[in-house]
TrEMBL record:
Gene3D superfamilies: Ribosomal protein L13. Belongs to the universal ribosomal protein uL13 family. This is 50S ribosomal protein L13. It comes from the Bacteria. One of its GO terms (cellular component) is ribonucleoprotein complex. Pfam families: Ribosomal_L13. One of its GO terms (biological process) is negative regulation of translation. The keyword Ribonucleoprotein applies. Keywords: Ribonucleoprotein, Ribosomal protein. GO terms for molecular function: mRNA binding; structural constituent of ribosome.
Length: 120
């Protein structure tokens, strides 16, 4: 039986003009290696994804002001609400990593895959 060794691929996305959600979805699929013929859900393919021009991504105005993120500290009255606009102004890369992480399977490979999400 012949074994084939492949090198981990490096993929670059230009985010300018693309929708934020679609870009996150494509990034999650490529990090999992679903574009490869050798894809298997239980192994890590080692694909790294680089995102360029994240600040030029397209976000709908209604989503920018209307989308809310909720966190609660489990203390009474400590519900923290932040809009997409506030989180984007603070750190867009951290928000994008959180979005992509939510689209990846919740298993042991998730942290390793998110480490290979790079920004240029």
């Amino acid at each position: 039986m012949m074994t084939i060794e492949t090198q981990p691929a490096a993929i670059t996305f230009d985010a300018s003009g693309k929708s934020l959600g679609r870009l996150a979805s494509m990034t999650a699929q490529y990090l999992q290696g679903k574009h490869l013929v050798t894809y298997s859900p239980n192994k890590d393919e080692g694909v790294s994804v680089t995102v360029k021009n994240l600040s030029l991504v397209r976000i709908a105005a209604s989503k920018f002001t209307g989308k809310r993120y909720y966190t609660h500290t489990n203390y009474p009255g400590n519900m923290r609400i932040a809009t997409l606009k506030e989180k984007w102004a603070k750190d867009p890369q951290k928000l994008f990593v959180k979005m992509v992480g939510g689209m990846l399977p919740k298993n042991k490979l998730r942290k390793m895959r998110l480490k290979r999400l790079l920004f240029a």
